[in-house]
Specification:
single chain, 171 residues, mainly alpha, two-stranded antiparallel sheet, 62% helix, elongated
Length: 171
Amino acid sequence: MRRVVAWDETHGVAFSEHLDLVLVEMPKFSQADLLKVSDDRERWLCFLKEGQTMATDVVERWKTPEIIEAMEELKKLSNDRAWREGYNDREKALRDYISMVKESYQEGREEGREEGREEGREEEKREMALRLLEMGLGMEQITKVTGLAAEAVAKLQAQAVGEPTAMKEEG
């Protein structure tokens, strides 16, 4: 367990003596340690992690009335079929939701990659068109080679010579 306090760096004091966070590594509390716990906080942590599989006599030896009451409530709820089904349904819904979010995230990443690839291909076409313009090739040849529309090539040509990007009308 680690206790963390909010610290005011400007004044060099704890933000509040009534506010702290306790970080707990739950895997460290196991069935083997049930009788070794030293205080109510550790007892609660063991109960929260192992409550469903704990023996009632262990909880009774702790002599913590609130945990004994919680154990009795846990037994009642575990024996209530409707409650158990509701709990299982909620757990399934949570797993489904997490799976859906992960899937959506993966799809979004793939879409983003494809968009990036497409932008890269378009940029490559524009760069090639600029090189071909520098070589003096005509508009028709450049559009055939790059696959860019004539308007896009004209825009690149105008940018290359420093003219405004709007196409000039031929009169």
